[in-house]
Design brief:
The complex is a heterodimer.
Chain A lengths: L2 H15 L8 H41 L16
Chain B lengths: L11 H35 L3 H14 L10 H26 L10 H4 L4 H11 L3 H11 L5 H8 L3 H24 L1
The chains are: A mainly alpha, B mainly alpha.
Protein name (chain B): Sigma-70 family RNA polymerase sigma factor
Pfam families (chain B): Sigma70_r2, Sigma70_r4_2
Family (chain B): Belongs to the sigma-70 factor family. ECF subfamily.
Chain lengths: 82, 183
């Protein structure tokens, strides 16, 4: 491939590229798209965090509810264990 | 442009300031490079989806902003995302075109195509018929004027492979150019 061929390719690409234009409101459109995606991402993270907290609370309440009132599952003193 | 890494503690004010910095940096990047990136996507074969591909790349950059190693890595990152997205789109279209009768889209509108000479149009058409890696290497080198290492980063391959793809692509295009010279 000669230098002139490379030059011809460069010129062809440049001329074709210059026929391509972008829409005038592109920035506003893209910015609203990335903001929407970010909001959705944060909403999903918040929903997941809430679900985890609710699930752990539920499991803890269930465990406490099922335990015998005489059995101290949180503060067990090993010296009094039989 | 804002610093990509930020050591401030995660207070509400710091997070808001970080978001504002990121938006400002992305806005500056967008206004400087958007048109060039749309043209890159078009030349790579994104056709009418070029703006959409570039918009997706900016959204991905927005999401991964904190993971960038430096501000200077933003543009190469965008190029790499665009190359990947266009490659996926072209592959998808190849499958679609096997099943549906397809009328090929021109790179730009008919009106703007009139500004391009016939031999140039034929050359770009021949470029688009090349295997994707060869086309990508040639567009990145001869339109964006990137160095081999930058092309390798954008394409996710080694510099040696870039050299091989460029040489093979140019050899094939050489035949088109010879045909034009003979005709």
């Amino acid at each position: 491939m000669t230098a002139s061929s490379e030059q011809r390719l460069e010129e062809a690409l440049r001329d074709v590229a210059f026929t391509v234009t972008a829409s005038p409101g592109a920035y506003r459109e893209v910015r609203s798209r990335w903001r929407r995606k970010e909001r959705r991402r944060r909403l999903i993270v918040a929903a997941l965090a809430t679900a985890v907290v609710l699930a752990t609370n539920g499991i803890a309440l269930w465990a406490l509810n099922d335990a015998s009132p005489d059995q101290h599952i949180i503060f067990t003193d090993p010296t009094h264990a039989r | 442009m804002a610093a990509v890494s930020d050591d401030r503690p995660d207070t509400v004010e710091a997070l808001a300031a970080r978001d504002a910095d990121r938006e400002a940096a992305l806005a500056a990047l967008f206004h400087r490079h958007h048109l060039e990136l749309v043209r890159l996507a078009t030349l790579l074969g994104a056709e009418s989806d070029a703006e959409d591909v570039v918009a997706d790349a900016f959204c991905e950059l927005h999401r991964g902003w904190k993971r960038l190693r430096s501000e200077q890595a933003a543009l190469p990152y965008l190029r790499a995302v665009i190359v990947n997205r266009v490659r996926m789109r072209v592959r998808h279209l190849q499958v679609v075109r096997k099943h549906v009768e397809w009328v090929r889209e021109d790179v730009a509108s008919a009106e703007s195509q009139a500004m391009v000479r016939d031999d140039q149009r034929a050359l770009v058409a021949a470029l688009r018929d090349l295997p994707e890696r060869q086309r990508e290497a040639l567009v990145l080198r001869y339109w964006l004027g990137l160095k081999e290492a930058e092309i390798a980063e954008a394409m996710g391959i080694s510099a040696g492979a870039v050299k091989a793809h460029t040489a093979r692509g140019m050899a094939k295009l050489g035949k088109t150019l010879e045909g034009q010279d003979d005709g």
